[in-house]
Amino acid sequence: MIGVDRRRLRRSAADLRAALVYPLTTDVRLFGAGLVTIGTYVLLVLSTYPQFTRQLLERDVTDVTYGVSVLTREVYLTRGWLGLALVVVYSLLTGVAVTNAVTLLRHRRRSGATSIAGILPGVLAAGCASCGAGVLGALGFVGAMAVLPYDGTLLRVGGIALLLVFLARAGDPRTCSIGAGGGTDRGASAE
Questions:
Q1: Are 20 and 96 in contact (CB under 8 A)?
Q2: 135, part of any domain
Q3: Is the pLDDT reported for residue 129 higher than 60?
Q4: Which residue, 34, 104, 107, 139, has fewest beta-carbon neighbours within 10 Å?
Q5: Is residue 105 part of a domain?
Q6: How many domains does one find in the chain?
Q7: Residue 25 domain-assigned?
Q8: Per-residue pLDDT at 38
Q9: Above 50 in pLDDT, residue 189?
Q10: pTM assigned to the model
């Protein structure tokens, strides 16, 4: 019984490693993952103080770099290194997850809705879990994050955990068949 769990754990670690390395396999994938990572970071940082961001962007859209730098400093001052590190790690994992999800969707396009259902958890995890502060603030629940334990840090850690579980479950998207049968088949490579 313990041997089976260890094998499963080793297999999940190997699949996670394969998923994390996949965007590094070509320059195009790396560039795409980098764009998504930067976009996610900017979105997460700007969503920490939605009123400030709205006023800044209404005045002049080109001030976005100023807003990102000011709000990055503010994230550091309010949440410390841990809070800033969580935003950076979440952005990186989102870049990897979106790159892998695009590849999965492209390879499974012919199988229709089952493919989309297979990659949807990763896209949803990439889209909502860490930006709780921004989403809640944008919806008018500005004080909601203050009510959460540790000012929402656990929500961000949970988002990162969801992304890691999705990536470990999917593995290398060139050999994954999540959408086809619910399991994974690492037999033949699709590329």
A1: yes
A2: yes
A3: no
A4: 139
A5: yes
A6: 1
A7: yes
A8: 94
A9: no
A10: 0.70
Q: How many CB atoms lie within 10 A of CB 68?
A: 17
Residue with the two structure tokens 């841990």: 82
Element (H, E) at 180: helix 178-181
Q: How confident is the model at residue 34 (pLDDT cuts 50, 70, 90)?
A: very high
Concatenating the DSSP letter of every residue in 36-88 gives: HHHHHHHHHHHTTSHHHHHHHHHH-GGGHHHHHHHHHHHHHHHHHHHHHHHHH
DSSP string spanning 81-138?
A: HHHHHHHHHHHHHHHHHHHHHHHHHHHTGGGTHHHHHHHHHHHHHHHHSTTHHHHHHH
Measure the CA–CA gap between 171 and 108, rounded to whole angstroms: 15
- The whole-angstrom separation of Cα 105 and Cα 112 is 9
Contact 170, 100 (CB under 8 A): yes
Q: Are 60 and 86 in contact (CB under 8 A)?
A: no
Q: Which of the two residues, 72 and 173, has the higher pLDDT score? A: 72
Percentage of the chain with pLDDT > 90?
A: 10
- 190 within domain boundaries: no
Q: Which among 122, 120, 45 has a CA at the least distance from the CA of 88? A: 45
Domain with 36 in it: 2-181
Find tokens 């500005």 and name the residue: 142
